[in-house]
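We store chain and fold; example below:
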Amino acid sequence: MKVSDKLKQAEDSKQPYFSFEYFPPKTEQGLANLYDRIERMARLGPVFVAVTWGAGGATAQRTLELCSACQGVFGVETVMHLTCTNMDIAQVDAALEGAKAAGIQNILALRGDPPRDAEYWTACEGGFSHAVDLVRYIREKYGSYFCVGVAGYPEGHIESTDADQDFEYFVAKVKAGADFVVSQLAYDANVFIQWEKKVRARGITVPVVAGVLPVQSYQSFRRLVFLTKVAVPEALRERLEEAKANDQAVKDLGVEHAVAMVRQLQAAGVRGVHLTTLNLENSVQRVLEALGMGEAAMKSTGRALAGQAVTGQAMTSTAERRVWDDFPNGRWGDARSPAFGSADAYGAMLKFDAQGAARVWGRPCTLDDISSLFARYVTGEIASLPWSDEPLRAETERIGAELARVNRLGFWTLASQPALDGVASADATHGWGPRGGYVYQKAFVECFVAGAKFGSFLSRLQSSASRVTYYAANRQGDFLTNAHAGEGTALTWGVFPGRAVVQPTLIDKISFLAWRAEAFQTWREWAAMFAQASQEACFLRETADECWLVNVVDNDYKQADAIWELFQ
């Protein structure tokens, strides 16, 4: 069934309705667990679910696989995102034919983010320049078979410098043959309400569904705001700043704000909301419960959907799966989680243009230039690196001097944390999770090491193998570790009243190698900021080819500074 028909039915019922959005997980275990999660969430009664598409078709196979399962196995009307970045007509046709074969009739036509390793967004030969081109092509070749949706931007597209012209582009997309609109998320209901009035005043009558993303963690919220430039009400910003040290409080505040925002939308006559889940379920379900939406489905299957069997490689305990990935699940979350990798699931890593990159990161031509750049970042002289779009977190202050030292020595750190031994969960700098608990963490450092230094560094790691766990890989795919096969290493854990021990951050082979691919790709993206034959571009590509990515965990968390002896 076409989503446009379902949306019309929902609107005619005069009742509030909702939909969900997921992204393709990075790991097979994450995908298996997402299937289990979607099966539960489908019982809440979404009008449709949507699945994102990586730029240039980077996630094409997994997106189609996930869409097929949602449509054919779980029986939920499914919208497949389709971007036209770096996609020629043959690739677009292959995607659309795959959707037809899977029984999927609904497409969200997007231009999408720039493909990774491209300096600027460009249409490939025989491809498309804008989402309107994709809408027109689908209509010309496939007629009315597909129900086509487009994105709306209540605050304007991030790349637009002319709000009026940007709105005209949106109108053109709809008039080219769109059947419905999903808006970019907003944190201010009034922004969407005023924009929708403007949309209706232009005679657009297709359904418009408001995008809503409950805040899941302080860090993911900050990154999202940084990347999208979405407006944030000052009251929300201040409350999140106050709660940032308590992850559970941040989640609670995210639910509270989303509920209030949806109620404000409903009061203005907006019935439909599109909930971006980040592949997590608890916050979204709490929002729906507070709004009285999806209630009938929950009652028919049991409150909180307890007791459902878990298939494949998913978790085996309802209580466990309701907790294990509740807390921040960025790169160093659990690779089994559907949310693993959510920190970079939406959008490419580099957001500077070539001029901005050169202004902030300079024009590196030597290894000393790289060492100096990383040292300037960890000492706070610059606010970002190609691998990190935000300043260091406050918890790194206690290891700041060592970070500066090792970076100047040529160990270019991407991530690190100090050892903690029973710090109160309410601690403003290091605490997380519910109040009344204690948190622990092992010291770890992740860094790039130039090829000439790697051999001696590896020898020191091997001589300390009884105490440390290490993972090392290069761009060519060589991989070294002293970890036992199939086992992960807990980096952080917490003990809280009335709960099992929570381990929100793990490192294992799967998660390390998933990140390795992106970490080395970022070197190529940075190199693409310079002319292809330039000294800078050649140097960055050569450095990427020769260096190693190394992650070191000191398992003796009671010896807080011992890890630094390895970096000489």
Summary: Residues 116-121, 296-324, 327-332 have pLDDT under 50 and may be disordered.
